[in-house]
Amino acid sequence: MAEPSGTGPNRRHATLAIIGLPNAGKSTLLNALLGQKLAATSQIPQTTRTKVLGVMDRGEVQLAFLDTPGIHLPKHALNERMMAHVDQALEEADMLLWVVDADDYLGTGEHALAKRLRKLGRPTYLLLNKIDLLSKGRLLEKIATYKDLLPFKEIVPIGAKMGLNLDPLWTILERDATQPGWPYGEEVFTDQTERSLASEFIREKVLRKTREEVPHGVAVLIEQWLEAGQEDYPEDLGPEGVFIAARILVDRDGHRKILLGSGGEMIKDIRQSAQRELKKLLQRPVRLELFVKVDEGWRDRPERLDRLSI
Ligand SMILES: Nc1nc2c(ncn2[C@@H]2O[C@H](COP(=O)(O)OP(=O)(O)OP(=O)(O)O)[C@@H](O)[C@H]2O)c(=O)[nH]1
């Protein structure tokens, strides 16, 4: 019989913050480690806006990963809150996974983060990501460039997108997770609800299909979530289905026009691909409706950010 969580004599755990600059591949890594998509990813920097917990139990070891927003200088209240999530994760974690884009150069952002981490003094693992884009020679050069930045516990080259070299990473993390007991029950996988995942996956589709300034000013609010038996539920969706209506907030009217596209083509495309993804996520029939609303300056309004749980 399985033992209740936290009581096995050899059970141990670690809380690991996945940190780094925007676009390094942190959320892609979280999804790869969990073997399931939990966090939105895109080539737009600042995709992740909050802290996302993903828990993996591996034998006696429980690893609680905290994905975090990419570290940047905040321009809006939204970005200040994003950076507060990073602060919180750094506070909670007992080990840090610093993900860098090994295909990019080591710049002032990395130096600033190294300085901060030096002060913090937590065991830090440098994950040189996107090794699929580098030759062996360049990778060795990168290791040499980074190795003296901090006294890293380990430097591990990985390819989060293709799942490259994750086995050695697991081995290291399991070896070094030494906190006693398990903080989460065996049934806990994440702190995200189906609704929060749904709104993130819709936003991801918007980010992937629009460009320039639009993605940074977009937020998604789930307005309706109806199941069979509830008033207004479309019965033709069947007894297992879910009807979701979501509002996409944009910062200005020009962005609304881009999002709608000519003849509504863009929003139709976003709706269809988000609906497909939500069916996979929820494992049931889904009907999604999307509305676009201009909400100028929402990124600086605390009550709006509260409503969005950012
Ligand atoms: N070639 C390659 N691309 C990768 C790899 N890992 C991530 N990417 C890509 O890098 C981009 C950024 O990935 P994300 O996981 O969204 O990055 P992030 O660090 O979470 O970004 P923020 O939310 O901005 O902090 C996406 O286009 C990913 O597909 C990798 O191993 N190889």
Task: Give the structure's gist in a few sentences.
The chain is of the alpha/beta class. It has 9 helices and 10 strands.
Protein model, in words:
Pfam families: KH_2 (PF07650), MMR_HSR1 (PF01926). Residues 129-132 are annotated as: G4. Monomer. Residues 12-181 form the Era-type G domain. Residues 158-160 are annotated as: G5. The structure is a single chain. This protein is α/β, with parallel strands linked by helices and 310 residues long. It has two domains: 12-180, P-loop containing nucleotide triphosphate hydrolases (Rossmann fold, 3-Layer(aba) Sandwich); 194-307, 2-Layer Sandwich (GMP Synthetase, Chain A, domain 3). Helix content is 35%, strand content 22%. It has nine helices and ten strands. It has helices spanning 26-34, 77-92, 108-120, 136-146, 166-176, 194-209, 253-260, 265-282, 302-307; strands at residues 12-19, 52-58, 61-67, 95-101, 124-129, 154-157, 179-180, 219-227, 242-250, 286-294. Strands 1, 2, 3, 4, 5, 6 and 7 form a seven-stranded mixed β-sheet that branches. Strands 8-9-10 form a three-stranded mixed β-sheet. Helix 6 packs antiparallel against helix 8. It is globular. It starts with 11 loop residues before the first strand and ends with a helix. The mean pLDDT is 94. The protein binds guanosine-5'-triphosphate. Residues 20, 22-28, 41-43, 45-48, 69-70, 129-130, 132-133, 159-161 line the site of guanosine-5'-triphosphate.
